[in-house]
From TrEMBL:
InterPro entries: aa-tRNA-synth_I_CS (IPR001412), aa-tRNA-synth_Ia (IPR002300), Anticodon_Ile_BEm (IPR033708), Ile-tRNA-ligase (IPR002301), Ile-tRNA-ligase_type1 (IPR023585), Ile-tRNA_ligase (IPR050081), M/V/L/I-tRNA-synth_anticd-bd (IPR013155), Rossmann-like_a/b/a_fold (IPR014729). The gene is ISM1. This is Isoleucine--tRNA ligase, mitochondrial. The keyword RNA-binding does not apply. It comes from Dispira parvispora. PANTHER family: ISOLEUCINE--TRNA LIGASE, MITOCHONDRIAL (PTHR42765:SF1), SOLEUCYL-TRNA SYNTHETASE (PTHR42765). SUPFAM superfamilies: Anticodon-binding domain of a subclass of class I aminoacyl-tRNA synthetases, Nucleotidylyl transferase, ValRS/IleRS/LeuRS editing domain. It holds the Pfam family Anticodon_1. It comes from the Eukaryota. It is found in: Cytoplasm; Mitochondrion.
Length: 1055
């Protein structure tokens, strides 16, 4: 059976446009022969794209070295082949006008989409990074993830509003300021000097970071950004404070807070990190009781002269502030002697107290030479009301009942210092026990504790001094090193203490459930972010919002001289905010206090001072949603769904930081979350999974990745797209690794993408606009390719919509390698290179390549902006397009004619299943060295399981007989269903497969077997297919094409 190639122009009547034009005309002939063979007929065209385009050669050159190795007769046909031709570079190069290209892809594109895209806008709100130091790989990860989202939304036709921001206040910048001024203590400088220098430092750092972000291609108008030091931002922040105060959420009290001696400031829980290997001094101390209750006196043994409460603590430095010992009323306590021949505290006249359940642990602690001898047992309620003496204050202190006392550790008698612990504070406050915290801002004992301890650092020599005193006074029973988790200042990496100081707080108890419920209504990626954020919110009763630093937004409160009572009224706060709005926040330190008093309060006979506290920087950044409120009625618009932002995206540490502070302040003011979707990413690690550290030398600098290091051999300049593609390739919701090996792999993948696009561009030409108007895609292989393109776009779209960019990366890689490179390009190269320019089937493939390239470019565009733009500019030139950028195109539309009905899908699945087996058998023959390339082979397929006279399945014949050899990339295909014939043909086979089942659309149980033979025909000197009658003659197809080309050339010469 022989069908002319022109039969592919249009399907016969009655086939309804099926991609299998002859599928409705089955044959009953037992054997069908095909005698032409498309394939990789050029030596430089290999099975995979990596082989096709080796780095050392240019596969698009018409004078390829591969052709030069052929006979003189073959050389003369080189110019008659339509080899790929394009000026699209094989490797990305930094162009002289790179800055102009970056501007076009960033600021110009941002302006274009703001002007041309329709409302409602898509708003991704930028969490402000700290304006301190250079950008690191974590910053690159964060901003590139945001940029991928924004660019995808532009392609989907949304007007994107993205305003970059910076967090400019706070301790790190202030500490750097002090260092730059060669002063170590804040008190050495006045606040205005610190503020001026800190502002300059923050702005300088911001400009450097902004320059890098723009170079990385982050889509934004980089002339429009917000800073937490801007006056309008600070005033909006103060308005949030004002609203929360009016609702009763803000108050001041003296209670224990986390205090950082290294920062000389209070810290919120969000500013702590825990050192799991912190070493503390674990001591057991005895306090002498003054027994007053009869119930206890009655059970004391005869001869008992002293009764001691035995207390365990890991903070010896807090003992001078001890005000009570807490017990549990419901626990059983033992009175016991310590028996030891040499221990000075093992006095037979001394009685100790501890819970019965802790005696075994105490015995283990003291060792086998010491015996614990119980003399009586009493309930905890018997102990309550008695007193004891604290050596450091020499005053009677009460034994109190507290529910937090347990048998889990210690002795069941808990040292209680209300100035240095929140549980201690709460239980003592209820009983009227005063707060006492004799420690200053630097973490030193004050003079209140006496000269022996005054001035000593509580976490260093102060703690040792307390232990020495206890030992000297025979109050120390046992001492050891205790390794445990302990809070540290996350900025200075130094341990913190708990210390009672007057601070301003936000009451969270009344809003925390509303905030937790608001999280239920949002979308979170990953889903676990919801519960994590809710746990943080529900775990906080209040938020310490005051800080004892100069560089920040002042808390707008005056204090009455003498009484130190705060002036905290709606009128006073409003007047202060208006004054700061007029004069700037520096005026809080430059203007006299009277200027901040409302007029009606200036003559009331009282004098006031300004407070020196500034707001927690998390309150600064947590009110950044007010920026989005201010956009209402502007071109930036507002999101349509009631939320201020479509997306908040930051690292997982921001659950306790920016995510939480933004949620709490928004709920406090508006009763709802400011964000609709919450996306969280992990942290970056080196390739060994270790945290990056300069001391270890494993830090990956994003600018070195982009621009290269000092030694370009070791640290090549990969460019922005490799950095972006690495981000896209990661499972960013978890911790990610990056290093030289991974970057090299990503670079190779990007090169494959580039070469894939280059092949497609090389096969397009300037006639493309006319071809798109005048021709249709009719080749079954091309129509199958469009079906695969539609599936690729569908899957990529779903992945983008789910923010699963690693799945987009996987889809791109699979489509490139498994379909385009390994199948479609191989199958169609013969028609592209060797068919006549006017060949309908060649034109069909050219049009298909156009559609594939368009979809391929748009899908990759949010990930690799420079490659996509480069592809687009070359493609647009062929199409005559003049758009600003590939991002001005819409997202690829899946055309209805690309669809495929289920039976046709099944045909292709079965056919490709057979193709896979053919490739395996061909590889067997290659290993046996009986053939070289696949075109050296003829293939026989034996189909078994068919009833007598049943037609061969359309899965094998549906493409048309000639196309099977093209799909299998062999010279000849023979189909047989007669076992006798098969036995005859298989006897001379070079390699044979085992029978394998194929799935058919009508559920028939058929098996196929593959045999490979050496091709019988000769190689055509032009197309290299094994289809010529003799080695020096052209095949029929090439003969016709060459004749047409010669005729066209002579006609051109004649004119």
């Amino acid at each position: 059976m022989s069908l002319a190639l022109t039969r592919l122009v249009a399907p016969p009547k009655g086939t309804s446009g099926s991609p299998f034009p002859w599928s409705k005309a089955p044959t009953t002939i037992a054997t069908q022969r095909m005698r032409w063979s498309p394939r990789r007929h050029l030596p430089h065209v290999a099975l995979t794209l990596a082989d096709a385009f080796p780095r050392t050669s240019n596969p698009f050159t018409t004078s390829s070295a591969a052709y030069q190795t052929q006979s003189t007769g073959a050389k003369k046909y080189n110019k008659t082949l339509l080899l790929p031709k394009t000026d699209f570079p094989l490797r990305a190069k930094r162009l002289p006008n790179q800055a102009e290209i970056t501007k076009k892809l960033v600021a110009s594109l941002y302006q274009w989409q703001q002007e041309n895209m329709s409302d409602p806008p898509f708003i991704l709100h930028d969490g402000p990074p700290y304006a301190n130091g250079d950008l690191h790989i974590g910053h690159a990860l964060n901003r590139i993830l945001k940029d991928i989202i924004n660019r995808y939304q532009v392609l989907r036709g949304r007007k994107v509003t993205y305003i970059p921001g910076w967090d400019c206040h706070g301790l790190p910048i202030e500490l750097k300021t002090l260092e730059s001024l060669k002063h170590k203590k804040q008190g050495d400088l006045d606040p205005l000097t610190i503020r001026r220098q800190a502002r300059q430092m923050a702005l300088k750092t911001l400009e450097c970071q902004k320059k890098d972000l723009e170079a990385w291609g982050i889509l934004a108008d980089w002339n429009v950004f917000y800073k937490t030091l801007d006056l309008d931002y600070e005033i909006r922040q103060l308005r949030v404070f004002q609203t929360m105060a009016q609702k009763g959420y803000i108050y001041r009290r003296t209670r224990p807070v986390y205090w950082s001696p290294s920062s000389r400031s209070a810290l919120a829980e969000a500013e702590l990190q825990y050192n799991e290997n912190h070493q503390s001094r674990s001591i057991y101390v005895r306090f002498p009781l003054e027994v007053s209750r009869a119930e206890l006196l009655d059970v004391l043994p005869r001869g008992a002269q002293d009764v001691f409460a035995l207390v365990w603590t890991t903070t010896p430095w807090t003992l001078p502030a001890n005000k009570a010992i807490a017990v549990n009323r419901d626990l059983e306590y033992a009175l016991f002697h310590l028996i030891h021949p040499d221990h000075p505290l093992a006095d037979p006249h001394a009685v100790y107290l501890a819970t019965v359940d802790r005696l075994d642990s105490l015995q283990d602690l003291l060792g086998p030479k010491t015996q614990v001898q119980v003399v009586a047992r009493v309930p905890g309620s018997t102990l309550v009301g008695n007193t004891y003496r604290n050596y450091f204050t020499d005053e009677p202190c009460p034994i109190i009942a507290a529910p937090h006392v347990t048998n889990a550790s210690g002795t069941g008698l808990v040292h209680t210092a209300p100035g240095h612990g929140m549980e201690d504070y709460e239980v003592c406050t209820k009983l009227g026990i005063p707060v006492y915290a004799p420690v200053n801002d630097s973490g030193q004992f004050t003079t209140e504790v006496g000269p022996e301890l005054a001035g000593k650092i509580v976490l260093a020599d102060g703690s040792q001094a307390v232990v020495d005193i206890l030992h000297r006074e025979n109050l120390l029973l046992h001492e050891a090193t205790y390794v445990h988790s302990y809070p540290y200042d996350w900025r200075t990496k130094k341990p913190v203490i708990q210390r009672a100081t007057p601070q301003w707080f936000a009451n969270l108890q009344s809003i925390q459930q509303t905030a937790a419920d608001a999280v239920d209504d949002i979308v979170a990626v990953p889903q676990s972010s919801k519960s994590r954020l809710q746990n943080y919110v529900l775990g906080r009763k209040e938020w310490c919002i005051s800080r004892q630093r100069a560089w920040g937004v002042p808390i707008p409160v005056l204090y009455e001289t003498g009484t130190d009572q705060p002036l905290f009224s709606s009128e006073s706060i409003e007047h202060i905010i208006q004054t700061l709005k007029e004069h700037g926040t520096d005026a809080w330190w430059s203007l006299p206090a009277e200027m901040f008093l409302p007029l009606g309060m200036r003559d009331n006979g009282k004098s006031y001072r300004k407070g020196s506290d500034t707001m927690d920087v998390w309150f600064d950044s947590g009110t950044s949603w007010t920026l989005l409120e201010s956009l209402r009625g502007t071109p930036h618009g507002v999101a349509p769904h009631g939320y201020l932002a479509d997306v908040y995206l930051e690292g997982s540490d921001q659950h306790r930081g920016w995510f939480q502070s933004s949620l709490l302040t928004s709920v406090a003011v508006h009763g709802k979350s400011p964000f609709r979707k919450l996306i969280t990413h992990g942290f970056t690690l080196d390739e060994a999974g270790r945290k990056m550290s300069k001391s270890v030398g494993n830090v990956v600098d994003p600018n070195v990745v982009v621009n290269g290091g000092k030694n370009l051999q070791k640290q090549p300049a990969y460019g922005v797209d490799v950095l972006r593609l690495w981000v896209a390739s990661t499972e960013y919701t978890k911790d990610m690794v990056i290093g030289d090996h991974m970057l090299a792999q990503i670079s190779d993948t990007l090169r494959k993408f580039r070469n894939t696009a280059r092949f497609m561009l090389g096969n397009l030409d300037s006639q493309l606009p006319r071809l798109l108007k005048e021709y249709e895609i009719v080749s079954p292989v091309d129509r199958y390719a469009l079906y695969e393109l539609s599936r690729f776009i569908e899957r990529a779209t779903a992945a983008y919509d789910e923010f699963a960019f690693n799945k987009v990366f996987q889809e791109l890689t699979h489509f490139t390698n498994a379909f385009l490179s390994s199948f479609y390009f191989d199958v169609t190269k013969d028609r592209l290179y060797a068919d006549a320019p006017t060949s309908p089937r060649r034109i069909s493939t050219v049009l298909t390549l156009h559609h594939i390239l368009q979809g391929y470019t748009q899908v990759m565009a949010p990930l690799v902006i420079h490659l996509a733009e480069d592809i687009y500019q070359h493609h647009a030139r062929l199409l005559g397009e003049t758009s600003l950028s590939t991002f001005c195109r819409s997202w690829p539309e899946i055309q209805t004619q690309w669809a495929m009905d289920p039976s046709d899908e099944q045909q292709w699945r079965s056919l490709l299943q057979v193709r896979d087996q053919v490739m395996l058998v061909l590889e067997q023959a290659r290993k046996l060295k009986t053939i070289g390339r696949s075109l050296d082979a003829d293939v026989v397929l034996c189909v078994t399981g068919l009833p007598i006279m049943e037609p061969l399945p359309r899965e094998l014949l549906g493409l048309g007989l000639e196309s099977l050899a093209e799909v299998f990339i062999v010279s000849d295909v023979t189909l047989v269903s007669d076992t006798g014939h098969w036995q005859t043909l298989s006897c001379s086979a070079l390699a044979i497969s085992n029978p394998f089942p194929i799935a058919l659309s009508d559920n028939q149980d058929l098996k196929v077997q593959v045999a490979v033979h050496r091709a019988k025909a000769h190689k055509c000197p032009r197309c290299w297919r094994m289809c010529s009658p003799t080695s020096d003659k052209l095949c029929t197809r090439c003969e016709v094409v060459v004749r047409e080309l010669e005729q066209a050339t002579s006609e051109t010469s004649a004119t």
